Prior knowledge:
The protein contains three helices and four strands; from the N terminus they run αββββαα. It is an alpha+beta fold. The protein has two domains: 1-35; 44-129, Sufe protein. Chain: A. It has a four-stranded antiparallel beta sheet. It is elongated. The N and C termini lie far apart (65 Å).
Amino acid sequence: xxxxxxxxxxxxxxxxxxxxxxxxxxxxxxxxxxxxxxxxxxxxxxxxxxxxxxxxxxxxxxxxxxxxxxxxxxxxxxxxxxxxxxxxxxxxxxxxxxxxxxxxxxxxxxxxxxxxxxxxxxxxxxxxxx
Length: 130
């Protein structure tokens, strides 16, 4: 086998692995989103994404009651496709304003803070429209 054939074969293997890993992460995301929508038929659901230039990124899944009390916050953060949503128990039973203060923008706000703020903004926008 020539070098070019070996390199193309290796590239194909890595590409196939990336497709499988992306599918696994996407199915986990769909499962978490489906679980959040079936747990609460009333209220609001917000999703936010925070990215850093290099390194970790985060996705926040925020569940809020019709009275704007936080029912749940799940966060997916990490570098790889093996990252999973994990609940943030600190956020439960907080008001939306208290959650905003907890994840307030600071001088070194990271992807998690940005993702949670984006999810809060999404919930507030839908709440204003109703």
